[in-house]
Amino acid sequence: MLAAPLLLLACSAKNSRQHPMEDVPTEPTTQVVKTAAEWRQQLTPEQYRILREGGTERAHGKVYEDFKQQGPGTYHCAACGTLLFSSAHKFDADCGWPSFYDPAKAQNVKLSKDYSLGSVRTEVTCAVCGGHLGHVFDGEGFNTPTDRRYCINGGALKFVPRDNP
Known about the structure:
Layout: H1 3-18, H2 36-42, H3 45-51, H4 62-69, E1 73-77, E2 83-86, E3 90-91, E4 99-100, E5 109-114, E6 121-126, E7 132-138, E8 148-152, E9 157-161
């Protein structure tokens, strides 16, 4: 008799790991500071490379294809759970990475000059944990209210569908 409830618990626990995008994260109320070892334990190797080392995922990859199929919802930092973007502000820039024209909460993203790669770009990071998200570009002529493109690594994001309880 105990086997059935235990089996159900095991299946639900396994299922939550298979679909981490559906868990509603708890937003931090203070800065999130962890050691490299703590981040490595929490994040996948790809998330660590993007969020903690400033990496970029491959353009037009599986994460981007998944992003294009996602309906209404919110996008949170995959490292700390902070609300960053909303599907209401996403658009298809056909650049190979998730694109938004505005953050959901401006205070949750930090913009700074990035002088790498021999040019000046504007880097976007999570204001709560410092995780690298991507870059923002102005004046590209997209038909959006801001004429800005937040070009964000999908691996840095956690999607939460709007109908999530």
